[in-house]
Design a protein that fits this description.
CATH topology: Nuclear Transport Factor 2, Chain: A
Distance between the termini: 36 Å
Structural class: alpha+beta
Number of strands: 7
Strand content: 35-45%
Mean pLDDT: 90
Radius of gyration: 14 Å
CATH architecture: Roll
Number of helices: 3
CATH class: Alpha Beta
Helix content: 25-40%
Largest sheet: 7 strands, mixed
Shape: globular
């Protein structure tokens, strides 16, 4: 996989969180984040949809250009709700040979207000 292909996959990942691209993942994706571990694309889509129900109109966007190498990508992101910064984080993506995301490790750089009291 080329670094250019890795950048395209990161673009698809951003589109997924903005509810426009569900085909970016392997069926057996694992997603590790402070909220827990999700397994499979259906669980990840369900999590995204549940978040969208609680924060309609949110926008997930890169804070910097993503870094890619050797089937890995690092994305620093920001979530906006009603145009205001809600949270920031860094996700590390593992990309398979077919150019689909096989695993994500997500970290919150700045958690939403009250998040740590509930998780």
């Amino acid at each position: 996989m080329t670094d250019t292909a890795g950048l395209e996959v990161v673009e698809q990942y951003v589109e997924f969180w903005n509810a426009t691209a569900d085909g970016s993942f392997t069926d057996q994706i694992t997603y590790h984040a402070p909220i827990g571990v999700l397994r499979g694309v259906e669980e990840l889509i369900g999590f995204r949809n549940q978040f969208a129900e609680h924060q309609p109109g949110y926008v997930f966007q890169p804070r910097t250009a993503p870094d890619t190498h050797h089937g890995r990508a690092r994305l620093q992101w920001e979530l906006l709700v009603d145009g205001t910064s809600f949270a920031t984080g860094t996700d590390f993506l593992e990309i398979d040979d077919d150019g689909r995301i096989a695993a994500v490790a997500g970290f919150l750089d700045r958690a939403p207000e009250g998040f740590h009291q509930n998780h």
